[in-house]
Amino acid sequence: MSRPGRPRSAAAPFFCTSCGNESLRWEGRCPSCGDWNTLAEAPGAGRPSRATRSRTHTQARELSAAPLRDAALSEANRLTLGVGDLDLVLGGGLVAGSLVLLGGPPGIGKSTLLLQAAASIRGSGGTALYISGEESAPQVRLRAERVSREALDIDFLGATDVEEVIRAADASKPALLGIDSVHTLTSTRSEGPPGSVSQVRECASALQEYAKATRTPVVMVGHVTKQGHLAGPRTLEHLVDAVLHLEGSRGQEYRILRATKNRFGSVDEVAVFRMSHSGLISVDNPSDVFVSGAGEASGSAIAVVFQGSRPMLAEVQCLTSKSRFGTPQRTTSGFPAKRLALLLTVLERRAGVAAIDRDVFVNVVGGLRLMDPAADLAVAAALASTELDRATGSRAFVGELGLGGEVRLVPRLDRRVAEAGRLGIREVIAPPAKSHLADDRKAVKSRSGDPKVVAVSHVREMVEILG
Question: How does pLDDT run across 411-428, given as a tens digit for each residue?
Fold first, then answer.
């Protein structure tokens, strides 16, 4: 069934302007994302197919298969950027030939972070090419003067044509190519305005071909929608090797960088930065930021979780109130809502803390997201604390809760306890060690300055400690 009133070419498919899904016929609703009236006809005239497209960097090579053992390991060397924990989030640095997408809300510091990375490479003797389609050279220079002296030596080009960008990169052969942003680029191989689905997909594909052929890492800045998702087609996230999100609020000085996709590293690592006049400054001890004043009032508890490879303390705040509607509200920020519903049921049935019929609000301070199951006991402690109106004090909580109310052992308990003691925590509520596992209790007690470890095997014991 064709769309009435508009002829279409039999060879030209339709694509969704929201998610980029292609369809052979027009439909009122996208079969992929479900949005209405988003299918548009792809331009067919004047656009070469991908099979017949000329490939500037690969057409001179004859491709042949070879065993993996013959691949040169030197090609996988990483380019260290030296900007705080940015290398940690990337898995050790930028892999040669990788394509990275850096997203975040407007004004959060994406351009500043890219400029600092380029300046760090320039300061170490490398070259970097900074492409901007949003700002002119004088505007970028104002930011570079605040960042560092090396930032003024970065090669700059104000361009929006992706073919022109690739020609400039071929001429300068930079160690890093930065694009600010991919949604401002256009390609002569596609029709449509900058930022459209076809243009974003075509420009990203061209940059990917350049990166893989020349082994040059490319970092692209991307815009986000009002819902916080990356703008453009969903294929953009599938195309790149890593997707980084810079989160935070322009009214606050702290920024959190996390990876939602990384083909060459973990997606559990986070980096914390503080926005200053001279750019983003790395926060060496994020736990000091996220637990300031925790435990002084009821409804607050400290969780010791692992963010990637390092332990971190996070403050969990809970508030309950009488429900004024038939269905109690469950509002969470930084903690899974379904996990909260499970903990409320366990507290009521196994510990006698009846909060399941009340409005519950849970917030993780600083914008952290607690996905570590070891945060269960801290959330339960914060819920019990606000219901009993008792402060948790200088305590930290570590443990996973089962449906029977049992507190389960979590890995790397000794490192969690050591991190809590380093920040002045006097007491850690944790599950008992198993006989067939290494006794972490004895290991941590043998060191001076570590907090007291109180073993609890059931959530009821934790509630009794607070009561």
Answer: 999 999 999 998 889 999
